[in-house]
Write a structure and sequence with these properties.
Order of helices and strands: HHEEHEHEHEEEHEHHEHEHEH
Shape: globular
Strand order of the largest sheet: 8-7-9-10-11
Number of strands: 11
Mean pLDDT: 89
Radius of gyration: 20 Å
Strand content: 15-25%
Distance between the termini: 28 Å
CATH architecture of the largest domain: 3-Layer(aba) Sandwich
Oligomer: single chain
Largest sheet: 5 strands, parallel
Number of domains: 2
Amino acid sequence: MDAEKLRELLIAVQQGSVDVDAALGRLRTLPFDDLEDFARLDIHRALRNGMPEVVFCESKTDAQAIAILARLWEHHDRVLGTRVSPEMARAIVAEIPNAIYDPASRLVTLIRTELPKPAAGEPHAMVVCGGTSDLPVAEEAAQVLEFVGHHVERAYDIGVAGLHRLLGEVDRLMAANVIISIAGMEGALTSVVAGLVPAPVIGVPTSVGYGVNFQGVAPLLTMLNSCASGVAVVNIDNGYGAAVLAHLILRQIKQATP
């Protein structure tokens, strides 16, 4: 249950269209909902921190992912699954026809109610990445932010191997309220971006790279040791985690804006 659904229920009780016992019945599953013997769904997480529980589908069976998504769909108007393989996506869509799969981001979405479009001038994020190989992580971050109602600018394939490409995006970078910088190889993009802009920068190391890249450990260490200030770093390939952090920053800015 998200904040809007709870508000509607409380208004209905206040107006007398829903009696107290019926409301109690609808709230009884809070704060979690047990699902067989493999999941305990946190269905009022959005009430606590503004972001509902999201299904990390990797390593789950098709049946488990489908059951969790379907149960969350009973409670929420918007449901998100991450790290979904094409094979799992086909199984999900077959069982839940409302599900939409995006192969670029590997996200499955269920949307019953569209969010209002961000207004012009609202705080926004920018997602940048070093190379085309980083696109799955970049699109995961960008689309998660869009899923929760934010405007997102994108600038891809602007890595430091051709610094002029990055410098061509300086105006847009300077206008962003938070930047997610995604890079593999040695991960230098994040430090360079943070040295150019006044906004907080969230670094996402990716597992893209040769040999001693160590599946993303090399860019992770580079970002953690950034000589530029104002950098926060999430785990390797964690576009979702970067998006949530950016969402919280943008939400705080919006709430503080008169």
